[in-house]
Amino acid sequence: MTDLDRILHKVQKPARYTGGEWNSVIKDWDSTPIKVALSYPDVYEIGMSNMAIPILYNLLNNQPDVLAERVFTPWVDMANELKNAGILLFSLETRHPLKEFGIIGFSLGYEMTYPNVLEMLALSQIPLLVSERNESHPLVIAGGTCVLNPEPMADFFDLLVIGDGEEVVLELLEVFRSAKTDGLSREQLLRKTATISGVYVPSLYKVEHHPDGRLKSFTPTVPEAKPAIQRRVVKRLPPPVTKPVVPYIEIVHDRGAIEIQRGCTRGCRFCQAGIIYRPIRERPQEEIEEAVEEILNNCGYDEVALVSLSTGDYPDIDRLIASLSQRFDNLALSLPSLNISSFSLELMEALAPRKKMGLTFAPEAGSERMRRVINKNLTEQEILETFAEVFEKGWLSIKLYFMVGLPTETKEDIEAIVQLVDKIRSLGKRNTGKTPQIRVNASTFVPKPHTPFQWLAQNSKEELAVKRDILISGLQRKGTRLSWGNPEVSLLEAALSRGDRRLGKVILSAWQMGAVFDAWEEHFKYEIWQKAFEDAGLDIKFYARRERSLDELLPWSHIDVGASPEFLKAEYGKALKADVTPDCRDGACNACGLERWETGCP
Questions:
Q1: Given CB 3.0 to 4.6 Å as the disulfide criterion, which of 352, 366, 435, 522 pairs with 417?
Q2: Quick check: pTM over 0.85?
Q3: CA distance 417 to 471
């Protein structure tokens, strides 16, 4: 019996840690020179639902001299058992300790998982700080949406990949190969990787702050380090993964998935993804259909998701769905991220004509003025016309997403949410004779880097409490349920997403005091973070609730995502006037800044 066998019976869901799943790739450890651990800082069920992991897993394992294995954050019970048994955190495929890999690559998609990164490194006996690692330690790297502001985690990563990873990862491998051949030191290797477009090496830059805490300067310290790091963009989507690892246990998105397009042109001003994934790139329909067939054959799934930021915007999506439905019997298709429209409803009806499951829509704001502010150009009449069709077609379970705390928001805008929900409820009762079941989710607006709202202050706890009370009192109706996110989580998310390099001390201190799995409500302890900020001599409100001036040097100013500061400022000004910017797919170029890039727009 191995050490692992002695502890697996003591933990929840031991299949999270056993590996051996269908389609997993196991290469010979001793004969494969480059070893990469693909790491996701959350539990198996969430990490295995992330689309970046299978893309990189497939890409790396297709290289003859590279092996890529997976690892996820062990749940608290397993982490304790590992510590008690003296077992280091290991990969799923061959159960080698992470410290034996040459590269550990993290995918960072949510700021609240930052302490989990430190937990995984500590369980692997790898120094947490870049400054404490030497030639014997793996390179610790990261990519994902969070690294578009890399500074809060800069102390912990040797290098970060900014933007699409499919091409830059292969270029990094070439540097790693030459480093082995040429006998480069760790510092020489990092300086060489810094010359690759889209690679950021934080240790090669000096950061200074003004006495009041604002960023003063950001300066490269070696010739290889570029003053600005340009986000990498693949011009054409690479072939989809059609032989992904099939989990033994149910995961969050337990189905096949195909990315049908990357990017979005709608221009919602609160949406970071809509900025950082530009330009839009579409996968040909023939490639999608072939990929669906291969996934069904390779995985045994009976459901496939057609994934994008706005799936209904894919050209001829109705023709694609009709073709797939005709070609594959008993195939269930799911289309996440549909916008409110009659067309989207027709798509839903085509997908599930017999089973009336719940529908989810995101009006985001209650008043038309507020929707113009955020550039969600949707009139109340269009919303109500769509819901009239919803109820006529037999749907009675509805989930609505709204944001609270948006810029220029007034008491009347919050009351407009109540009024809109009331109109939808009355419409349902009038059209069906039954009271529809409406779930309202009100989340706190979090200003994000690289958006037109990046300079704004987040609402205070007191301001949010007033708005919450309006919703609670106004939505106390039969068949309506309100859920309200924890404002302290939103406060911390805002601070971490717009933080500077000094937050590394805060994250380290919070983890040392027990912060782990903060994305899970039962584990989040705000008092830990309060003390961590205090111990570091920093104020969380400085990062979350301070309005930035338009000429302030921001912690992410050295990251060039394509959308120019001039465009973001212009959009910010239009938001304050409630002016709408049209979708550039439907008309003229909005000059967001990508036109100055070599990649440009298709």
A1: 366
A2: yes
A3: 8
Cβ-count burial 133-147 (b if 16+ within 10 Å, e if not): beeebbbbbbbbbbb
Strand partners, 364: 402
Looking at the domain covering 256-485+562-576, what would its CATH class be? alpha beta
Query: Tokens at residue 71, please?
Result: 């690892």
Helices (H), 433-536: 461-474, 487-497, 503-512, 526-535
Mean pLDDT of all residues in the chain?
A: 93
Separation CA 66–CA 64 (nearest Å): 6
Strands 229-230 and 559-560: parallel
158-216 pLDDT, tens digit each: 999 999 999 999 999 999 999 988 999 999 999 999 999 999 999 999 999 999 999 99
d(CA 216, CA 506): 20
pLDDT of amino acid 341: 67
- Would you give the distance in Å from CA 487 to the centre of its chain? 20
CA distance 506 to 306: 39
Orientation of helix 285-299 relative to helix 317-327, angle to 10°: 40
Q: Is 370 helix (H, G, I), strand (E, B) or coil?
A: helix
The residues, any chain, with a CB within 8 Å of residue 329's CB and separated by 6 or more, are none
Q: Which two tokens stand for residue 472?
A: 């609670």
Cβ atoms of residues 254 and 211 within 8 Å: no
Strands (E), 169-327: 199-200, 205-209, 215-220, 229-230, 256-259, 261-262, 281-282, 303-307
Q: Give the residue extent of every domain in the chain.
A: 3-226, 256-485+562-576
Other beta carbons within 10 angstroms of residue 293's beta carbon come to 16
Residue 601 amino acid letter: C
| Residue 200 bridge partners (DSSP) | 160
Q: Is 362 helix (H, G, I), strand (E, B) or coil?
A: strand
Flag whether pLDDT at 351 surpasses 50.
yes
- Residue matched to tokens 């089973």: 355
Q: What is the pLDDT of residues 82-110, one digit of tens each?
A: 999 999 999 999 999 999 999 999 999 99
As a whole number of angstroms, the distance between CA 567 and CA 573 comes to: 10
Report how far residue 431's alpha carbon sits from residue 394's, in angstroms, rounded to the nearest whole number: 10
| C-alpha dist (Å) from residue 410 to 127, 320, 413 | 48, 43, 5
The fold adopted by the segment(s) 3-226 is: Rossmann fold (3.40.50)
Residue with tokens 């069920």: 45
Query: Which residues contact residue 537 at a Cβ distance below 8 angstroms, ignoring those fewer than 6 apart?
Result: none
DSSP-derived pairing of the beta strands 559-560 and 34-40: unpaired
- Counts of helices then strands in the chain (DSSP H, E): 20, 19
Tokens of 522: 């039962």
pLDDT of residue 383: 92
3-state secondary structure of 270: coil
| DSSP, res 255 | S
Residues linked to residue 440 through DSSP beta bridges, in sequence order: 400, 482
